[in-house]
């Protein structure tokens, strides 16, 4: 069975580096854990790094976090579905909102559950994903603060995820000004501006974060060490926190071009082959992972000279080249993974999940240790 490995020591290194950067700039931050798809083994590693605030966009994942660490503040980071109002109040300490009707339901549930449910109002800043239109923001806020058991703790925005619109100093300054206008008109204080995500981190390096932008939500840069602003890598961070490992289940010399009448393949493509390869052969290997678990375009073999040829639902086909490592059937091959590769593999029940072999403390507030293998 193929498996994905979380290298906890590398993740810890990335966390400490980011934590130092945010502390130096007086910014609070929360980890976005949706990449882990609620996997308890991996969440325990994450909670050892920080048990303060964890964000997710799947309610079942927040439920798991609360089971592992009841005191951790959980944040639901997309506008809730109305049908989930009861569970949102139960398992999310904070939720991101854009719809008054949904907030009314959250208010009713908070009253029934005898809780104060905290909310961040998301503002549309040009990305055209979730967000309240600026022209409606003041009246929207006035209606929200009148709701019982609802506390507005922040304004937020999301950028880059849908249309690639980047954050900049001007947009963040506008968001800060919206908060100031609301406070001036209402007489109420809004503690946080959650204006930052992984894509906003490079603005810290350039000193382009306005004072008052005091909360970030970070996933991708923590897990991959990426500069999301420029689609590059950040020096000093690990980029291989995750690896995929698959076992060779067949290895044979085969022609480089198939024979017979060609139609579309599994994903509706018609493969095209170079005539230069006609009559040639190569050493091919099949490993036990496929399109159900991974998009082969999002991974790369870590051993030199190995080319990914293609994939079917359950198998990945490789050209081993000169096979300089003398691989055999039963050996395993490691692959690097990008964000989408990890997300897809984490969501697959057919890919096992492992943590690098080390002693990792777990049990918030105690001295227990687990050996995670």
UniProtKB/TrEMBL annotation:
Keywords: Isomerase, Pyridoxal phosphate. Its cofactor is pyridoxal 5'-phosphate. Gene3D superfamilies: Alanine racemase (3.20.20.10). Coiled coil: none annotated. InterPro entries: Ala_racemase, Ala_racemase_N, PLP-binding_barrel. Residues 9-225 form the Alanine racemase N-terminal domain. It comes from the Bacteria. Pfam families: Ala_racemase_N. This is Alanine racemase. It comes from Kaistella gelatinilytica.
